[in-house]
Protein 1
Amino acid sequence: MVDAEKERGNSPAQTGKPKSSMRHENMLCPKEISYLDVFGLAQNPFPIAPDDENFYISENIDQILSEIVHGIMTRKGFMVLTGDIGLGKTTISRRIMNILEEKGVETSLVFHTAFQDVELIKEINRDFGLRTESLHFNKQIRLLNDFLLEQKSPGEKLCHYY
């Protein structure tokens, strides 16, 4: 049997390197193989930020989307989407917002659930593009109410997510 290391001139005696470091060098790949290449993926399937464009819509999620969009379009009232951390509430909300915006519904999304009172109304106003420097609750709510009344024409719908 022929020793391949000796044939290539890579034996420890010929290179002067210890045998253990020779094994390590021979194990290195010339090109690092990523899981994207292995599975034939064009992008990271597990992004840190929610990605509603590549979100798998199961039968259950499709039903949730349909029910919420239907409820908004038919003005059924107050709806709540709840779930544990990491189950896709933000992604589903973004998907719903995209569907609603395609249907001409103006939307608002507030991420910070710690907002209360005037801070919450001010954040909703900001999201709708309404600005005022006042920190008085009455002025903020009046600004939002006036905006909503201006938007309320036949067929016009608004939606807010919190």
Note: Residues 59-73 form the longest helix (15 residues).
Protein 2
Amino acid sequence: MSGFEQPIYPKVGPGGHRFESFSPKLNRRVVFFDRWNVDQWVLLEADREVTRFCERPCRLQPKISQRLVDFWVKTHTGAYGLLIQTAQEPPSDADKTKDAPIEEIRTVAITDLTACGQRIQNWRLILPYLIANRTLITQEWTDPVMDLLHKPQTLGSVEHHFRGRDTVLIRAALFKLLHQGHLVSEDLDKRPLDALTHFESGHGQT
């Protein structure tokens, strides 16, 4: 199967949650119905190995179950489905996934998402820059930032170097390079995003 492009939209009763945003990686609107799917979406946007994804791509067992696969994910090396295991659900097993339209199904526990809390929190701050400025950040902005990052820099040092230029757009340019995998930052997994957050070239890293 080449992939999934169209999400399934389930019926949501009165009082149901609904979260809408825009995916820079997909260049389209995304809609989620619980916070755990929102957190997983943020992690997919942050993952430089993920090239595409689709939320709620298909049912886990189309003939007998309404349970939706939470994400189909395509990376540089393959593709797989993600199933977020909530506390209300029994553990997944091979029998439940053997008839799935996606050959490989990976289970994500809530504890896995919780463990990525700092990364999720930081990317929740980064994504609005990418979304709001997606039509403004051209190579005119990204090339000078990339040139500067031939050696590691902090966010504060980047902003200081380009003082006199729009700080929001400089940040957006840096974050776009990060989102595209040209830059990396181990700090984003460990501490809150601030002026001391380090960034470096991601070329040659896996």
Note: The chain is about 35% helix and 20% strand.
Protein 3
Amino acid sequence: MLQANPKWKWHFDIEQGQLMLDMDEMMFVVAAKKSKLLDEVKKEDIPFSVEDCDSYTVYYHALEDVFDLAEPILTQMALNATALVTYSKPMGAKSWFVNPNTGDIPDLFEQVVTLTSDTQQGLFLLLERANESSLLMLLNPSFELNGGSQMKQFELIRVINDRLGRYVSQ
């Protein structure tokens, strides 16, 4: 696992319209639309905080426990999750884009869950769980929502909790 460094900082590149993590020796580009980010992160560099480090570590290990993936891919997923949960604008639930779960319900400790649309099932990382709804990040390259809209990898969706399905690894 790539270890966080006190020199790391979040940086918004105005020319490219991208949030990046300046990792001192390299830049990590966050997969987020400029319009979906909080204004505060667009104004000045923000240090990679202790909370960011905790989130990154939790997401990394949750993914590592479920998937047999190379370290760079796990790092990419965990850093995107950390940035998006911290710097994305709040969003309301959009549950109509996916079907209610009819299978096993994920327990409170599972962080990789599924959502099912009329055409496919997608894998998501659970970033935030509240009593009524959960914020999820897409792990698949894409996901077709009900109504024909497409999500791209690392995009977020909030859905009511009755949509969450249990992921069973193959």
Note: The CA atoms of residues 18 and 33 lie 7 Å apart.
Protein 4
Amino acid sequence: MQVLEIPLSIIASLLICLICILVFLRFMGKTQVSQMTPLDTVNAFVIGAMVSGVVYDPDVTVWHFVWAIAVWMLLNYAVRFLSHSNFFSNLVFGKAEYLIKNGIINLALVRKNHMDLEAIKSVLRERDIYSLTDVKDLIFERDGNFSVTTRKNRQDSCILIDNGEPVEDALKNIGKTQEWLDGEMKNFNLAQGQEIFALDWTPGKGFYIVDKDGNILTKAQ
């Protein structure tokens, strides 16, 4: 009977750990599964260490794990709340970078991301692009994926305001200034007290605006 008690206790502990992890993933959002950020990688290591402690260390009980993952969840919420600031978000999660912009390769960024030309061509071949001359922009996204714009299929839409803050890198990439954006915003006819949460701009088409309450406004150019 004593032989069966040990594995049964481990099974019960693992079951509780599994439930806690599923709750953690549910509350942290679906991007935990679909997109890996540096914070997600840290979560994977920390939660793995917590589970192994429950299984292999007799001094660590499953209730220690429950409390630990609850505290860890609160810390995650704090980090994600602070990530509403563009500075903190770029610091923790990184930012999108143009490896190729207007057909010109940025070798400094390519080397910074530990890539070479063959790695870039491999990314392009996965998208049925076999010549660098067909590429207008290649963007290394913050989640590790790549976005490609070809010269035959331009997609110039870009976010100029995110989380209520101007995205300076986006303005720089399109050759615009904060003064230009401020001038355009004066023509949006916003109601008194209405604040912009996000603003997306497409050359030749205009602005797609989302205010703090989730209301959608558009302004053609």
Note: The beta strands are 97-101, 104-105, 135-140, 146-150, 158-162, 165-166, 196-202, 206-211, 216-220.
